[in-house]
Amino acid sequence: MMTEADGIVSDHTKVLKMWLYTLWLYAIISVKSTIGNQLTKISGSPYQCSSTWNIASSAVDLNCFITDNSNWTFQIVQKWAEEHTVENMTVYIKCGQNGSIILRQPVKSHGLAALYIETCKIHQYYRYDLSKDIRLLPFTIKTMEVVESIHVITYQELSKLYSQHSAEVNSLYPCYIPPSLERYVERNVSVTAIRNGYIDHDDRIRHRKRIPTCNYTHLSYYEKSISTRSKLKFVSRFLDKGYFPLIRVLNFTRLHLATIPQKLRGYELSSEHFIKQYYIDLSYNRISQVEFGSFNNTNRNQFTIDLSHNNVRVITPLLISTLEAIYPGVLLFYSNPFSCKCDQHSLIEFLKNSPKTLVLNYKYIYREKCKTPIRYKGHVLSDVPFEKECHPLESNGNDITITVICVVGAVISVFVVIAYLCYNKYFVCLRYKRLTQKRDTISSNNYEYDAFISYSSEDESWVKMMCGRLGGPPYHAKLCLHDHHFVPGVTIADNIFDAVRSSRLTVAVMSEHFLSSQWCMMEFREASYKSMLQTQSRVLVIVLDDLDGLKASLPPDVDLFLKTHTYLRVTEYGFWEKLVNGIVQARKDSDTRTYDNTTEV
């Protein structure tokens, strides 16, 4: 039975509970108020940054959006982080159209753990901050990603770096990227150079020679991918000047690499420079020759080198010996334009006769499709009768049979030569007649197109990329392409003649496919003949493939043209600027219109 005293105690207990509950709510409101005070904006409009503070982990996320056509500087973050004594900060920066940020090396800030930059123009990256405050800050950043952005570099800042600050920079900050990084990504990042000064070539050479080898003791993932120009020199310099004891992934896809960087060949892959398990992505490049030199995987490193979607045509006996030497390491050759001629026979023998543990990594090659010869194009390698096609002729002593075969072959060859000469004579006469009829039209400067692009359909993807840039701003070149402008119902020969005649310039995208196409060769010869008639060069050759191995089989007129004319290689320095200048010069030669070529390429 409850007494009056019990009731009084019960009432006091209820009051005490209510008081404690009120105190608890007040404490929560006070904490929220404190957090709210910490979630201040970093900068005013237009530099909108918002912060999210995780009390449990003391982590801060800064989200900054740089509005269209506005400028912003990373120093805002550095100052804010110092004022708030940040310990673990992740910064996300995204720019609107033509949004720019100033980001100077070294990339440091109080508590900076990760930095993500997207669609920005980055200025002053090579104008190092050598102040004492920055120097005393340690490198804390572990992740850095720059995507779909542009580095805007001026000759003035490079000149100062090479001539005035080279020794100090190489002493304080010798690494290409912050040495504390565990993950670095640079994807589809281009460079625009503003030529507002002069760079001494000798200063640049001396600066690069002074750069010491950097020990990337934390780096496990490095990516530099997607570029419209070859990045072989940059990749080679980065690898040559680095030591990567923990690297697991090197991603160099879509960089227009024509060869494998030197450091990724030979003994270094199996040495202490790399750990036992790693992945190197060299896919979607232009690598045709796979050479690793002296390679012995004594450390049994289980690495993978991805050479898919390149230009590897033949797995040579030397390369097969490399496949055996690097085991359990493996090379991937998916979706390469394989040749199914007899020079591939040694690969088939390797797949049939090698140990199963080794061959298991390369069984997929049986399912790869042939690119050449024509009769096997599109077939998988396993369907090609290599034994029948490539088995050497065994002599059975029947000399008469061999003699008959030789005689018949000689007779057929004579008839082929005679037929070719007759056809060639007829074709030359026909061309001369048409040229005579249209000579007045040829000499006219009333051109419909800036350039006629002559190319093989096998190289269409690269050509479309080139035409997209030439046809867009700021060049607005009017280009003639056979798949768009050839008139249906008209003979191909007449379409070719009209295209060459109505264009100021013929740009021949020369590759192995181009040389094997009769129509491409007709276009090249028509344009060459037009140049002779006008006593001006009207042909610009772009060498897409490495033609050094084909020089012995080049048609005489092509060989003569390449020996007597300046041509462009897609891998050479300044290729794009030279191509634009060639088209611009053709405009100036044919009419009096002006052309603005001051835009940086």
Give an account of the 3D structure.
The protein has 601 residues and is α/β, with parallel strands linked by helices. Among the domains are: 41-212, no CATH class; 393-437; 449-590, Toll/interleukin-1 receptor homology (TIR) domain (Rossmann fold), CATH 3.40.50. It has 20 helices and 25 strands. The chain has an eleven-stranded mixed sheet, with no helix packed on it. Strands 3-5-7-9-11 form a five-stranded parallel sheet. Strands 22-21-23-24-25 form a five-stranded parallel sheet. Strand 24 (539-543), helix 19 (556-564) and strand 25 (568-569) form a beta-alpha-beta unit. Helix 4 crosses helix 6 and helix 16 (492-501) packs parallel to helix 18 (518-534). The longest helix has 39 residues, at 399-437. 25% of the residues are buried. Mean pLDDT is 80; it is low at 1-9, 28-46, 393-399, 438-444 and 592-601.
Beta-strand content: 15-25%
Q: What would you call the shape?
A: globular
Largest sheet: 11 strands, mixed
Q: Tell me the radius of gyration.
A: 33 Å
Number of DSSP strand runs: 25
| Helix/strand class | alpha/beta
Give the low-pLDDT segments.
1-9, 28-46, 393-399, 438-444, 592-601
| Average residue pLDDT | 80
Helix content bin: 25-40%
Question: Counting H and I runs of at least 4 residues, what is the number of helices?
Answer: 20
Strands ordered across the widest β-sheet:
1-2-4-6-8-10-13-15-16-17-18
The end-to-end span amounts to 96 Å
